[in-house]
Structure formats: structure tokens, C-alpha cells
Amino acid sequence: KDATGNPQTRHWQALGHAHHLPPFSDYRQLKEHGPRIITRASGVYLWDSEGNCILDGMAGLWCVNVGYGREELVEAASRQMRELPYYNLFFQTAHPPAVELARAIAELAPPGMHHVFFTGSGSEANDTVLRLVRHYWAIKGQPRKNVVIGRWNGYHGSTVAGASLGGMKAMHGQGDLPIPGIEHIDQPYWFGEGGGLDPEAFGIRVADQLERKILEIGEERVAAFIAEPIQGAGGVIIPPDSYWPRIREILRKYDILFAADEVVCGFGRTGEWFGSQYYGLEPDLMAIAKGLTSGYLPMGGVVVRDRIVEVLEEGGEFYHGFTYSGHPVAAALALENIRLLREEGIVERVRTRTGPYLQRRWRELAEHPLVGEVRGLGMLAALELVKDKKTRERFPADLAAGMRCREHCFANGLVMRAVGDTMIVAPPLVISEAEIDELIAKARHCLDLTA
Ligand code: PLP
């Protein structure tokens, strides 16, 4: 990680140290080592400033769905930049890329979801969810129905509302979060919190917490439940099969809106366009971002169910929006990105070929002495590092096994993310079978080095 051969590396690290405060970074460590400098990328590979080639097992931050270096996206953005580089959508205004993109998303979304509110990021999308659901119930004459329930260890972004809706305790610890009006229930994390139950019984038990929480708060106070179909940043938590049907039952029983955070699952990661479609969910709102533009430009949004739009229309002006809502260049690029995903059959390939292939090969890692569980779906996969395979005893925290594994991966040409001792991959959706073989071989080698 330290600068070695290339003098430019030292130059950029010094600039970073002197001037840059990067997101989600340990500033003490940075002071000692300086950042890793990534300079270019192509397909599923990154290059750092030392010339090392690294297989990007995380598609950036779960976002570069079509892979790096797609000229079509560059062309679409530059065409739009020449035509209309910017105009706002405030005060009853629109431009062609925004409305064309809204239609393209509506065509892919679950039935009955035909409108999109655009934002600049996934966090802004979830802020918008919070404001939209409260606005909705206020228009319906129930302004006190304003509490939103999220899940511990869920991730919904880094703004004040996003971090509050999320259940990351370390984030809550910095800055007096969550804000009032947001409550949390447990996550369906069987490996970590199953407590001896079989997975399906555990799924029901954690889903039933939602009902208990609703009754505790009062059903007339609960506006919405927000959740990722599969928790990403929390550790690729795949819920037991019993979980979502029970949650759906409870939401219907108490007339509570459901907001699916599709920022990670959306645009093909599970092999369906949205994770909600994989699980047969019928969300009222869906937060989207990341794969919408394959990360080439920042953009997010909220896809909204028709019956909610009908109520919003009665409410007059919605005092909410962003300078960059529906940015024309990002929208034109997103449209081209969706065209590539569709016309090249990328989502279909994840569903039928490369997703099952990754999952089959990933499960071979279950044999490794350090691995307590493997799980995954489509282009999402995780494994749990354990000290004792039989008893599933964890490594002591001060050993930082996950961090060590991640560092071995970087040094050996693979990006794998560590959430504590859970190791994660979510590669670009275009990854080939040969590249999956390379990913698995490198992952296995790095597990050996971590042992
Ligand atoms: N929601 C989920 C599920 C995410 O994983 C993320 C980012 O990782 C966000 C929301 C926040 O998106 P952004 O970083 O674009 O604000």
C-alpha cells in the first residue's frame, strides 16, 4: 500500500494527506500510510498508480454494473452535454432525458409503479422516501402517521435521514442519530443472530418483530417500513425464505407503506431488474441509484406506486427537490446504460448463466478451514470467516481477520470488501466465467494467507 516505485504515487498521496478528507476512511491510518491511488479501469479490472492490475470484485461500490470503459456511455453523456448540459426541473419544468428515463424505469419496475422522482444519490433517494411518506399521510389527513421503521445493520446512506433510517450503530454514534420518528427492528441475519433456530423459524421470529414494533408505537403512528431486499453493506444478508412473505402480511394488515431500498439490488444484481421482483415484493416506493448509471455519473431516484402519486396530486406543491434532480447528462447516460443492460442481455445472463456460475464456484470456498458459511444470489456473495469451523466461533475482534483478508486481496490483485469478518463480492454484472474463475482462485489464495 505504501508508495514504492512510482514518484507520482508519493505526489498524489501527499496531496491527499494535505488536502483531502475521503469518505468512510480511517483518518489515523491514512496519516500513516496515505491512500491507495486508482488511476484507470477497463472491463472488470482496475489499475493503481504502481501499475498493479486488480480484479474489481466490488464493481466500485456495487455500482459499475456494465463494467468500466464503455464508450457508448461516454458518447451519450457528451452528446447530451453539447445539447443541454444543465437545466433544472423545478417549477413545472422538464427536459427530454428526464422524462424518457422515467418511462424507461417505469417499464422495468414492478407493475403499478409508473413515476420517478429523481435525486443525485441513493442517500438523497432515501431522504426523499422519508419526506414523501410523511407528506402522503399528511395529505390523507393523518399527519401523526409519521414514524418509519428500519432495521438494525441496514444501510440507507449517509445523509442525516439516510443514516437514521439505516441501522449502523457506529454511524448513529457520530452525531446524535437517529433523528426522532425513526425506529429499528432486528435484521434477518441467521448466521450471526440465529441463536440455534432453524433458518425458517428464525425468519418468522425476526419478521414478527415488525408487528410487535408497530403495536408498541401504535399502528396509527407508523407511516412506512424501509428495507433492502438483500442487505448489502450490512454483509450481503440473504433473508430466509419465510421472511418476506411474513413481512408482507404484517404490512398489509396494518396499512403501512413499504419502501424497498433497491440501491444495491436494482438494475440486475440479483438476476432480476429489481430485488423486489426476485422476492415477489410489491413496494410502494423503491429507492434507486448506483446501477442506474453504472456509477459513471451520480444519480438516484424514487420509483413511486400509482396510488401514491394520485394522493400526491391532491396535495399541491411538494416542497422538495435538488439542483441536480434528473440532471440531463446523467439521465442521458442512464438511458444508454439501461439500453446496454437490456440489449446485451446482461441481466438475463446474470439470471441464467454467470450468476449461477459464480454461486456454484463461490460455494466451493465453503470447504476452506476459515469459512463458516457461504451465501449469495446473482452477483452478490459473502462468506463468514471463523476461528472454528465446527463451533462457528468467531476470531477475536482484535485479530481483524476480515481486514487482514481484505489487505491480502488488494496485494494479490482482487478487491474484496470486509464487513467485520464477513467477506463480500459484488462484481460488475458483465464478469465472464473465466474472470469468475480468477476471482475464486484469488479469493482462495487470500483465505490461505489469512489463515
Ligand atoms: N442504500 C443502499 C442500500 C446503499 O447500499 C447505499 C450506498 O451504498 C445507499 C443507499 C446510499 O447511496 P449513496 O452513497 O449514493 O448516497
What does this structure look like?
This protein is α/β, with parallel strands linked by helices. 42% of the residues lie in helices and 16% in strands. The chain contains 17 helices and 15 strands. A seven-stranded mixed β-sheet has the order 4-10-9-8-7-5-6, with helices on both faces. Strands 1-2-3-13 form a four-stranded mixed β-sheet. Helix 10 runs parallel beside helix 11. The radius of gyration is 22 Å and the shape is globular. The model has no long low-confidence stretch (mean pLDDT 97). Bound molecules: pyridoxal-5'-phosphate (PLP). The site of pyridoxal-5'-phosphate has 16 residues, from helix 6.
List the helices and strands and how they pair.
Elements: H1 7-19, H2 27-33, E1 38-42, E2 45-48, E3 53-56, H3 59-62, H4 71-83, H5 96-108, E4 113-119, H6 122-139, E5 147-151, H7 160-165, H8 169-172, E6 182-185, H9 190-193, H10 199-217, E7 222-227, H11 243-253, E8 257-261, H12 275-279, E9 285-288, E10 300-305, H13 306-314, H14 328-343, H15 346-363, E11 371-377, E12 380-385, H16 401-411, E13 414-415, E14 417-419, E15 422-425, H17 433-450
The protein binds pyridoxal-5'-phosphate.
Keywords:
451 residues; alpha/beta; 7-stranded mixed β-sheet; 4-stranded mixed β-sheet; 17 helices; 42% helix; binds pyridoxal-5'-phosphate; pyridoxal phosphate binding; pyridoxal phosphate; transferase; aminotransferase
